[in-house]
Design a protein that fits this description.
The chain has strands at residues 2-6, 10-13, 18-26, 33-39, 46-52, 58-59, 67-72, 77-82, 91-98, 102-104, 108-113. Helices cover 0% and strands 55% of the residues. It is globular. The termini are far apart.
């Protein structure tokens, strides 16, 4: 079992930056993949950034060059640094981890005003 808790999101203006932190606990050494997803009401949850163990991160096309994901294995955390935010980035952001099962955080709201 893995438990995931996201830091609080927030309201920012377009062009500003925001960092989200995901804290993992439980069977963290079983985690093979971690990442961030986001969801807008009425739409499917979409991948933002993914890190597979031992591999480079993958990003959605619309966040490449603006978002950076990283993990700190010792601390059991994963961060998402979001720069040059746009109103289209407004969504509920979810932390994700995969062992033999999929785990999700509770989600945190990010709102970017124009």
């Amino acid at each position: 079992q893995v438990q995931l808790v996201e830091s609080e999101g927030g309201l920012v203006q377009a062009g500003e930056s925001l960092t989200l932190i995901c804290s993992a606990s439980g069977d963290v050494f079983e985690i093979r993949r971690m990442g961030w997803y986001r969801q807008i009401p009425g739409k499917s949850r979409e991948m933002v950034a993914i890190i597979n163990s031992g591999a480079s991160p993958n990003y959605a096309d619309d966040v490449k060059g603006r978002f950076t994901v990283s993990k700190d294995v010792n601390k059991g955390t994963m961060s998402l640094v979001m720069n040059r935010l746009e109103p289209e980035d407004s969504a509920v952001y979810y932390c994700y981890a995969r062992t033999f099962d999929d785990y999700w955080g509770q989600g945190t709201q990010v709102t970017v005003s124009a």
